[in-house]
Amino acid sequence: MFGPINKRLQSYLAERKRRRTRLVTKDGHCNIEYGNIKYSKHFVFLADFWTTFVEIRWRFVLLFFIASFTMSWFIFGLLWYWIARNNGDLTWQEPPADHTPCVDNVAGLTTAFLYSLETQTTIGYGGRALTPVCPGAVALLIIQSLLGAVINCFMCGIILSKISSPKKRAKTISFSDMAVISPKNGALCLSIRVANLRKTLMIGSQIYGKLLRTTNTADGETIIMDQVNIDFMVDAGKDNLFFVCPLTLCHVISKGSPFFEMAVDTLHKQEFELVVFLDGTAESTSSSCQVRTSFIPQEIMWGYNFLPIISRSKEGKYRVDFSNFSKVVPVATAHCAYCFHNIKGHHHHSKDGLDNQGFEVIDIHDPASITKM
């Protein structure tokens, strides 16, 4: 009775442990904490206040937006009340009939707050107006108008910067949930699939990876986060990708690859994290962005390949089936990279291949005009 519940609990705890041990989550967030920072160092965030305000959460931006306007209205309302009080304009001061106030119809704290709000927001209902008898009131009007314009510009800039943040564009770049290892073009490759969910292109896209693992040097030093470069490429190269449709990125497992010493039965026992980066410039906004994801050994499948997702309809249109984006099928693959390169008969290729349902076969009469993708 409790068997399925125990299995679900164990799988949940295992998944939670994997999430905690990741440096980079699947959606690109870095799982790292900073400790023992001196309090004086926190003032550097105030020195770079623009970046601080752009990076804080929306709830705090909205709170600061409301507080900045409300507090400025109230503080200037107190100043207008003080000017009216010094001039004897308030109701309880019982000004004479021929008395000229600094501000018409400001006879208390509430009316002073309303005049402050109307001045800073340039509403101007017409019920309250400044008179020329108080030079201090004229100076206060100029100061409030200038400060109100500064607050408006600052808050509008913060909101527009957060809305147009390149991080939002990165959310429309999707990586496959799993990575696969299989033969490809005569080589043993680790493959990852990536897709641009928008029709607008990413200009100058570049893909690269870092393998993070703990290593021990010959001097006995333990490096907790040793980084090894992992090169990815498509058939057309690794720079300036034509990112108009989903691409399969490949890392060739050669003798210089850190995956060369691994095998199908030892891969999931390893402790490492493969972080993949994609840098590019959004075509519509010209803003640079970076997309990140990571793969742990349990998310790398040896002896599998991705299902085809691109087909061509009878009308001549290309179609991408995202239902197969992360789906894989088993293929004949060598037990290890060493076997693939050194032992004959261990690098079998699938003769039958995989049929892409809905793909239309077309005849190409000029083979010389074919361009590899």
Describe the structure.
Keywords: Cell membrane, Ion channel, Ion transport, Membrane, Potassium, Potassium transport, Transmembrane, Transmembrane helix, Transport, Voltage-gated channel. Residues 24-166 form the Potassium channel inwardly rectifying transmembrane domain. InterPro entries: Ig_E-set (IPR014756), IRK_C (IPR041647), K_chnl_inward-rec_Kir (IPR016449), K_chnl_inward-rec_Kir1.1 (IPR003268), K_chnl_inward-rec_Kir_cyto (IPR013518), Kir_TM (IPR040445). Helix content is 30%, strand content 23%. The chain is elongated, with a radius of gyration of 32 Å. Strands 1, 2, 3, 7 and 10 form a 5-stranded mixed sheet that branches. Strands 4, 5, 6, 8 and 9 form a 5-stranded antiparallel sheet that branches. Strands 11-14 form a two-stranded antiparallel ribbon. The chain folds into 2 domains: 56-164, Helix Hairpins, CATH 1.10.287; 168-342, Immunoglobulin-like. The two termini are 54 Å apart. The chain contains 8 helices and 14 strands. The chain has helices at residues 3-21, 43-47, 49-55, 58-86, 109-120, 135-163, 166-170, 337-342; strands spanning 173-175, 179-184, 187-196, 202-216, 222-231, 239-241, 247-252, 272-282, 288-295, 300-302, 304-306, 310-312, 318-320, 328-330. By secondary structure, it is α+β, with helices and mostly antiparallel strands. The relative contact order is 0.10.
- Fraction of residues in helices? 25-40%
Number of strands: 14
State the domain count.
2
Relative strand content = 15-25%
CATH domain class name of the largest domain: Mainly Beta
Order of helices and strands: HHHHHHHEEEEEEEEEEEEEEH
Structural class: alpha+beta
Rounded mean pLDDT is: 82
Poorly predicted sequence stretches spanning 5 or more consecutive residues: 347-373
> What gyration radius follows from the Cα positions, in whole Å?
32 Å
- Total helical segments: 8
CATH architecture of the largest domain: Sandwich
Major beta sheet summary: 5 strands, mixed
Rough outline: elongated
And the CATH topology of the largest domain?
Immunoglobulin-like
CATH superfamily of the largest domain: G protein-activated inward rectifier potassium channel 1
Q: Span between N and C termini?
A: 54 Å
